[in-house]
Design brief:
Helix content is 23%, strand content 29%. The chain has five helices and 13 strands. Bound molecules: biotin. The site of biotin has 21 residues, from helix 2, strand 4, strand 7 and strand 8.
């Protein structure tokens, strides 16, 4: 068994990391550990999926707070059973795993999107429910999954997975063309980006846990890319995006009236 490089002292059989210098693992661990006792940061060169790995660990009873970064994923996952393709040089892929006990889980992915967008750039928009967009192209995606603790059913372990395109990507094979962060932050590198967003991300998750989605609503509204635009729901229904509700549901005006979209199983895209 090899020990992953990073700031933690646990071994999970992962391959050792690339040079630590590129990854400010210890700086991130230090800055977040006051809010997350026992927090570790792990960076590995390759994994199937950081979300899959933390979900496997959670199911095996490992519920410690951890930030797991993979320089390369061989089976990255997106929402709705889709894949997430990325390469080590052109993207940042990580998952934050932690115990969470919010009164209501509605809107968590939107709150995470708000935190990421605000920490990165004023021009980044949010496409309900889980995407960061730049000028009608997809810059980043969020995949949140939860596991329940066998020891305490009320405690859930949340795995917040984030994939961000950093460098230029070709559009072939994407239903929504990709954007990349270096368009906004020329030369930005994965480690710097992670350092920049890790604190705001944890802060937002903790605020969401304590206060719910309400405090994020106006901040989402300010970046909502679907508002007042034609949208097409997954079932083919056409409508106009009319913002979100107080708990983060999407409002769509259709020919048969206002619809409130709650299901994360619905795919929504601006009509061409
Ligand atoms: C989506 O756009 O549908 C969500 C994409 C989420 C991708 C990230 S990359 C890190 C983490 N590990 C995964 O397998 N998926 C998430």
């Amino acid at each position: 068994m090899t020990t992953p490089s990073g700031s933690g002292d646990r071994a999970h059989g992962l391959a050792p990391s690339a040079p630590e210098a590129a990854w400010p693992a210890e700086a991130i661990r230090k800055s977040l550990s006051a809010q997350l006792p026992g927090f570790t940061v792990e960076v590995v060169p390759e994994l199937d999926s950081t979300n899959s790995e933390l979900m496997r660990r959670a199911r095996a009873g490992h519920l410690e707070p951890v930030l797991l970064v993979a320089e390369q994923q061989s089976a990255g996952r997106g929402r709705l059973g889709r894949g997430w393709t990325s390469h080590s040089a052109d993207s940042l892929t990580f998952s934050l795993g932690l115990r969470l006990v919010p009164a209501d889980w509605s809107g968590l992915s939107l709150a995470v999107g708000v935190a990421l967008a605000e920490s990165l750039h004023a021009d980044i928009g949010l496409k309900w429910p889980n995407d960061l967009w730049l000028r009608d192209r997809k810059l980043a995606g969020i995949l949140i999954e939860t596991a329940t603790s066998a020891a305490a059913a009320e405690v859930r372990y949340a795995v917040v997975g984030v994939g961000i395109n950093l460098a230029e990507r070709q559009s072939e094979g994407f239903s929504t063309p990709p954007a990349w962060l270096q368009e906004l932050l020329p030369g930005c590198q994965a480690g710097d980006v992670l350092l920049r967003l890790a604190g705001p991300l944890l802060q937002a998750i903790r605020s969401f846990e304590a206060e719910g989605f309400t405090i994020f609503k106006s901040r989402f509204d300010a970046r909502d890319v679907l508002r007042d635009r034609p949208v097409l729901l997954g079932d083919g229904t056409a409508g106009i995006g009319r913002g979100i509700t107080d708990i983060g549901e999407l409002r769509v005006q259709t020919a048969s009236g206002m619809k409130t979209i709650t299901s994360s199983e619905v795919s929504v895209r601006p009509a061409a």
